Amino acid sequence: MNEAMLKELGVVRDQIDSIDAQLLALLNERARCAEHVGEIKSRYGEAGHVYRPEREAQVLRRIQDLNQGPLPNESVTFFFREVMSACLSLENPLGIAFLGPLGTFSESAAVKHFGHAARLVPQTTIDDVFREVEAGHAQYGVVPVENSTEGAVGRTLDLLLGSPLKICGEVVLRIHQHLMSRETSLGAITKVYSHAQSLAQCHEWLNRSLPGVPRISVGSNAEAARLASVEPGAAAIAGEAASERYELPRLVENIEDEPNNTTRFFVLGRHDAGPSGADKTSLIMSATNRPGAVHLLLAPLAAAGVSMSRLESRPARAALWEYVFYVDIEGHRDEPAVKTALAALAAEAAYLKILGSYPQAVY
Ligand SMILES: C=C(O[C@@H]1C=C(C(=O)O)C=C[C@H]1O)C(=O)O
Questions:
Q1: Could you confirm whether 78 is annotated as catalytic?
Q2: What are the pLDDT tens digits along the chain (363 aa)?
Q3: Cα of 55 to ligand 1 centre, how many Å?
Q4: Ligand 1 centre from 36 Cα, in Å?
Q5: Active site residue 98
Q6: Ligand 1 center from residue 310 Cα (angstroms)
Q7: Which of 21, 93, 127, 234 could make a disulfide contact with 89, Cβ separation 3.0–4.6 Å?
Q8: Is 279-359 assigned to CATH 3.30.70.260?
Q9: What's the pTM?
């Protein structure tokens, strides 16, 4: 290397070393503050509420407002989430149940929301995630609720109806599907494993690029990657987490048919969140089976000036041809307009259950 260049590099590297030392000192100073907050909470009998989703959302939104680059918001948000995760785990790492196995998009969602310091506990089914949190074996649970191309996850919606758990957060994850295999060319691929939903999300790509190659649906994308990692000729469609877990090279990246493919997850806990300033409230309601019933249910929202961000109907199991509605509205249940709308809904609906208020996902 050129001596002048080495000299210049040396100056900048000294600067970086000095900044790193300052960052380290500041990170530990911040960690001590978070410990202090934890100590105050336990002194006031709030030891069980150490994790505060609304406060974390506010911290991240503020960081994004302050950020002037060159680092993009996505990167600084990632760092600060990890910092909060590490600070929180100094006291007691959070136990997070999620729909496993490791290597699924649910794992990525849990890590995106709670950071790498959380203790992730994979579960076999969505039912098990609910049970683990209800039984207190895990403090929080992460379950998929809807995909932008495939629609609602029915099992999650059905379980929310009967569960005492509250929604205390949402995570929105961009879903990128990759074709991964030990084979090095498409021509060598004789079968493709994946979860049925992922096969559906890559249906057109598969018709075009691997016509006639059998598609085999298995329990999860991670299981598909595991199979493809040991079977010659096999490929899997799965996400980055699975390719890393099974050290399976990605042959073709981003093969999802819909470029804006996202999945939304709910974070479940035994309490919901306080107001963060930009919140949502999820509820389930049902109307008696008469003309105009749905309109009567939705009118109170409009009257109070509350926006609805999602409406999903599911058949009620109890009575044939009756429906329950899953509604997401903007705002926190403690805000006056939302309070007014909820009171009017309670008077109108045959059944109303408030699933929780929580901060809108921070991207
Ligand atoms: C430190 C606190 O507790 C936790 C840690 C946070 C953090 O590290 O910034 C934020 C919210 C809580 O999950 C707090 O409530 O301020």
A1: no
A2: 789 999 999 999 999 999 999 999 999 999 999 999 999 988 998 877 789 999 999 999 999 999 999 999 999 999 999 999 999 998 778 999 999 888 888 999 999 999 999 999 999 999 999 999 999 999 999 999 998 877 899 999 999 999 999 999 999 999 999 999 999 999 999 999 999 889 998 999 999 999 999 999 998 899 999 999 999 999 999 999 899 989 999 999 999 998 888 999 999 999 999 999 999 999 999 877 677 777 877 889 999 999 999 999 888 776 656 788 999 999 999 999 999 999 999 988 888 999 999 999 998
A3: 6
A4: 10
A5: no
A6: 30
A7: 93
A8: yes
A9: 0.90
For residue 121, give both structure tokens: 């506990």
Q: Which two tokens stand for residue 341?
A: 């709308």
Count Cβ atoms below 10 Å from residue 191 Cβ, excluding itself.
16
Q: Which CATH number fits domain 95-175+262-269: 3.40.190.10, 2.60.40.10, 3.90.1510.10, 3.10.450.700?
A: 3.40.190.10
Residue pair 118/84 in contact by the 8 Å Cβ criterion: no
Tokens of 70: 């060159």
ipTM above 0.85, yes or no: yes
Protein residue whose Cα sits closest to atom 4 of ligand 1:
51
Which atom of ligand 1 is nearest the CA belonging to 83?
8
Main-chain dihedrals φ then ψ at residue 359, nearest 5 degrees: -65, 140
Is the separation of the CB atoms in 260 and 147 below 8 Å?
no
For the chain, give every residue range classified as CATH 3.40.190.10. Answer: 95-175+262-269, 178-252
For the domain made up of 3-89, give the CATH fold.
Chorismate Mutase Domain, subunit A (1.20.59)
Mutation choice for ligand 1 from 30, 87, 271, 358, CB with most ligand atoms inside 8 A: 87
Q: What whole-number distance in Å separates Cα of residue 109 and Cα of residue 126?
A: 14
Q: What is the dihedral of CA 293, 295, 301, 305, to 10 degrees?
A: -160
Q: Could you say which of 77, 104, 156, 263 is catalytic?
A: 263
As for ligand 1, residues whose beta carbon falls within 6 Å of it are: 34, 37, 50-52, 55-56, 59, 84, 87-88
Question: Contact 355/282 with Cβ under 8 angstroms?
Answer: yes
Q: What CATH class has 178-252?
A: alpha beta
Atom of ligand 1 nearest to the CA of 51: 13
